[in-house]
């Protein structure tokens, strides 16, 4: 059997809205013939089609329902039900309530929008597992103030963990233990003293990578008050392994 590593292509990594040259959070993960869209943040459907037709996806996985991680599901719906794409519905894994949220937004009139024509929806829960082609997806609840999940994507030979948006938490560290690569969001500053922390700082990302023994750290979703170079430097104070920035359009070979 051929070795099936994972390729991670960054569709966008901006927060909390797209910049002129960087959409919000979205990633294409491929392994062998398996194709997976991870987060559908604002502006990511366009870059996705530079690599794959929407109808050729094996599944979509959404970490949480903030717009910078899910808004392009709305345009994907119209593509799947009202355009030239014949392969549908696409399996969609997302937080509890995702079907109701999409239906509410997309309904224009008295008849509910036919969400099930576009998406075959599966609600996530802690320790949810799904086999998508040759990839096993294991989701863990993470700490973001709303239902939110990280995911471990494992081929027979390789593993990639995506944090979603979260404060440092034991579930994410456990999920990432001994992974080949950790794709971790890295907001620039800690939360105010009177507010709960709901994101990683770059230093937190380095600590999570160290504590989980990740083989590689890919820093993403960097806040606008910080340059990627600064984020990498700050993460490196807590992690001694390879660190890279998830620049839009970059493809990383994992494993």
Automatic annotation (TrEMBL):
Q: Which residues form the Metallo-beta-lactamase domain?
A: 36-221
Q: Which residue ranges does the record annotate as region Disordered?
A: 190-211
Matching InterPro entries: Metallo-B-lactamas (IPR001279), RibonucZ/Hydroxyglut_hydro (IPR036866)
> SUPFAM superfamilies attached here?
Metallo-hydrolase/oxidoreductase
Which PANTHER family does the UniProt entry name for this protein?
METALLO-HYDROLASE YHFI-RELATED (PTHR46018:SF4), ZINC PHOSPHODIESTERASE ELAC PROTEIN 1 (PTHR46018)
Protein name (database record): Beta-lactamase
Please give the organism: Agreia bicolorata
């Amino acid at each position: 059997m051929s070795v099936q590593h994972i390729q991670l292509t960054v569709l966008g990594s901006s927060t909390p809205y797209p910049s002129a040259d960087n959409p919000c959070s979205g990633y294409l993960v491929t392994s062998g013939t398996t194709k997976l869209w991870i987060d559908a943040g604002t502006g990511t459907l366009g870059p996705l089609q530079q690599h794959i037709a929407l109808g050729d996806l094996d599944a979509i996985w959404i970490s949480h329902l903030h717009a910078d991680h899910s808004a392009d599901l709305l345009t994907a719906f119209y593509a799947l039900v009202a355009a030239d794409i014949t392969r549908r519905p696409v399996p969609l894994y997302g937080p509890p309530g995702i079907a109701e949220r999409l239906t509410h937004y997309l309904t224009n009139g008295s008849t509910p929008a036919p969400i099930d024509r576009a998406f075959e929806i599966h609600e996530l829960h802690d320790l949810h597992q799904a086999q998508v082609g040759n990839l096993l997806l294991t989701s863990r609840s993470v700490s973001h103030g709303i239902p939110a999940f990280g995911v471990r994507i494992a081929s027979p030979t390789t593993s990639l963990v995506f944090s979603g948006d979260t404060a440092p938490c034991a579930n994410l560290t456990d999920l990432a233990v001994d992974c080949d690569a950790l794709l971790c969001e890295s907001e620039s500053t800690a939360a105010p003293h009177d507010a709960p922390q709901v994101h990683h700082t770059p230093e937190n990302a380095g600590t999570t990578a160290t504590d989980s023994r990740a083989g590689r750290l890919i820093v993403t979703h960097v806040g606008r008050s910080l340059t990627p170079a600064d984020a990498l430097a700050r993460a490196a104070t807590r992690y001694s392994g390879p660190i890279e920035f998830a620049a839009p359009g970059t493809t990383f070979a994992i494993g």
